[in-house]
Specification:
Length: 238
Amino acid sequence: MIPILVAHGTRRPEGVVMIGELAERVGTLLAQPVRVAFVDVLGPTPTEVLAAEADTGRPAVVVPAFLARGYHVRVDVPTHVLASGHPDVTMTPALGPDRRVAAVVAGRLVESGWRTGDSVVLAAAGSSDPTARADLDRAARMLSGMLRAHVEVAFAATGAPGVPDAVAALRSRGARRVAVASYLLADGLFQRRLHDAGADLVTEPLGAHPVLARVVANRFLTAQTRLPLRSGSFGGGR
């Protein structure tokens, strides 16, 4: 198996390092190196990484490092896979929604000083895709159940409400303290925007958290051991 982790990409070196650290931690769990590819901003692209392995005879497994099933997961990554010419690729589900990922977000909140009674905004990059919005709503419900508190979903880029608007709306309804829980994988422009939203505290992105690394590793192992590795396979259950 050739394991490939596909992320969005960022111009911030710190974000690129975070993705590299995640891939390295996953590689340790798998006992083999994990390749990294990016769908935007920088390379290599999934097409380039897969094309370089097309004639090796080894099946490839692609894990999309996205937290919801938006455009990149449903259209962009599969398009890259098809364009690569690699004859044997399995693409796994996205990393969220997943209770283990929600637990990481909850832990980040506690680490950042969240207290019972604080209002919470789950801040995602954003998407106009209804499937992605449904995934984000589900993630918010998971987090809400863990915190025993209502969780609002807001967006750093595409979609409404924006994170500043969500924070302001909570304050207008009487919230004394508002916490923004980053539902982002790595540092970058969107993470920087969260710090300008007027909240009392903002959590760090998920990064290379050990639990997230295990979620990614499990995606690879599930694809390798339970799914048929056949040409053009883009399926897989959670």
